[in-house]
Amino acid sequence: MDYSQLKPYINSNKERFLNELLDLLKIPSISAKLEHKTDMEKTAEAVKQRLIEAGADNVEICQTKGYPVVYAEKIIDPAKPTVVVYGHYDVQPADPLNLWDSPPFEPVIKKTEIHPEGAIFARGSCDDKGQMYMHVKAFETMMKTNTLPCNVKFMIEGEEEVGSANLGPWIIENKEKLKGDIILISDTSIIANDTPSIDAGLRGLAYMEVEVTGPNRDLHSGVYGGAVANPINILCKMIASCHDENNHITIPAFYDDVINYNDSDRAEMAKAPFDLNDFKKDLDILEERGEKGYTTNERTGIRPTLDVNGIWGGYTGEGAKTVLPSKAFAKISMRLVPNQNSHNISEIFAKHFESIAPKSVKVKVTAHHGGEPVLVPINSKGYVSASKAMEEAYGKKPVPTFGGGSIPIVALFKKELGMDSILFGFGLDSDALHSPNEHYGLFNYYKGIETIPLFYKYFTS
Ligand code: BES
Ligand code: MN
Ligand code: MN
User: Boundaries of CATH 3.30.70.360 in the chain?
Assistant: First the structure.
């Protein structure tokens, strides 16, 4: 096969590749908000059209109980291997809107210190429309240059940012259709543009909501204050008690299933370049904080967490109102590592939280979505192929890393479809995913389009 035409084809289509992505970024496909239902459908339709134009067959919008999955395939020879590409077309809400320097769904290109060639500023530019669309353009490039060496299937979903609850049943119903050899996903990060890396694992997630009720109604905080439990005070105390002075989580049995790495594994992981001063400078903090006995990379990669994502109750409006509230609420997430299980952890969290509540309040705990942690075998054909592809494209061998985020469906790909996933991400942690001013480097976008065909090359050789 003649791969020499890949780069020239990409170079001569750069502007169109960019403009097509910008068009996709203009549709506010926020899965968390019902008001964007038609935008979600519009985005699925746009992804379908682009896959057809790129040369895919049997392109369809598959209905689920939630937002649809866009499926497409190119079967060149059933005897050849099949790469199954996964990505998501939904994005996180753009709030708080006032912190964006330009409107989140009107993409603009601006240069930054880290992205001197320019970056696309828009919600979803990195997570995940920009990274997902690299696969569509890499596929087009392989089709047009006659270099597609195997079969490919696309599965682009619309509910990743809300937990992928309907994708699980859909993949179970479509096992035959999704048959393949490897799942390829670009929805994670590399260390830096001159330091490629490939995740060897992702954390899981257990997301909980708690409600603490004190008196049966809001009270005058002077008339009753001091004699009745304040549910906000109590909730804060309960949350604070979930960590000890070493920032170790205090929930009984919480760490029972956590894999403990030995010193030589940890020494291997510590080889990944990391600069604590840069980390602190980027976040404008004087000191990092985390579980005693672990490095920053270990704290985000191989250790579980418990964090409050939101807390509310009482009066938060303008000025002051003296009130002793009836209720307090919090959303609490736990990032999980192998071999913790989200259902098990949700259960022990609920039991623990109920057990530490004083009699003066009632506690209700409910579980939101969850997802299981994953490990990718780094000696597998898929991982090694991804590593070789990046080495060829970047001129540097990628470092194995552990991603701190979660992609809930990945564990189910293994369990239900029997396939490993390759976490072939090209974004940067500093690209502000989920935050105001999310962006994606033009260098990263084009580098991804150039690197993906090399994965196909090595995976089939
Ligand atoms: N693409 C991210 C996950 C990610 C980002 C992994 C960077 C590694 C590095 C994904 O879209 C995401 O945000 N996942 C959510 C899952 C949740 C909504 C169920 C997460 O991690 O919070
Ligand atoms: Mn994502
Ligand atoms: Mn995300």
Answer: 204-257+304-369
Query: pLDDT tens digits, residue range 143-176?
Result: 999 999 999 999 999 999 999 999 999 999 999 9
Crossing angle of helices 129-144 and 14-25, rounded to 10°: 140
Q: Residue 358 carries which DSSP code?
A: -
Look at the pTM and tell me if it is higher than 0.85. Answer: yes
Best residue among 90, 159, 160, 332 to mutate for probing ligand 1, ranked by most atoms within 8 Å of CB? 160
Query: What's the gap in Å between 160 CA and the centre of ligand 3?
Result: 7
DSSP secondary structure string, 341-352? -HHHHHHHHHHH
Looking at ligand 1, which atom is closest to the CA of residue 429?
7
**Interval 381-422: pLDDT, tens:** 999 999 999 999 999 999 999 999 999 999 999 999 999 999
Residue intervals in the chain for CATH 3.40.630.10 = 3-202+373-459
The 8 Å CB, 24+ separation contacts for 292-297 are 292/246, 292/247, 292/248, 293/246, 295/270, 297/269, 297/270, 297/272, 297/401, 297/402
CA of 425 to the centre of ligand 2 (A): 10
Q: Given pLDDT bands bounded at 50, 70 and 90, which one contains residue 369?
A: confident
Homologous superfamily (CATH) of 3-202+373-459 is Zn peptidases (3.40.630.10)
Distance spanning both ends of the chain, measured CA to CA: 11
Six-digit token string for 202: 């992702």
- CB crowding 325-358: b at 16 or more within 10 Å, else e: bbbbbbebbbbbbbebbbeebbebbbebbeeebe
Nearest CA residue ID for atom 13, ligand 1: 161
CATH number assigned to the domain covering 204-257+304-369: 3.30.70.360
Residue from 166, 198, 309, 406 to probe ligand 1 pocket by mutation (most atoms less than 8 Å from CB):
406
Express each pLDDT in 188-222 by its tens digit.
Answer: 999 999 999 999 999 999 999 999 999 999 999 99
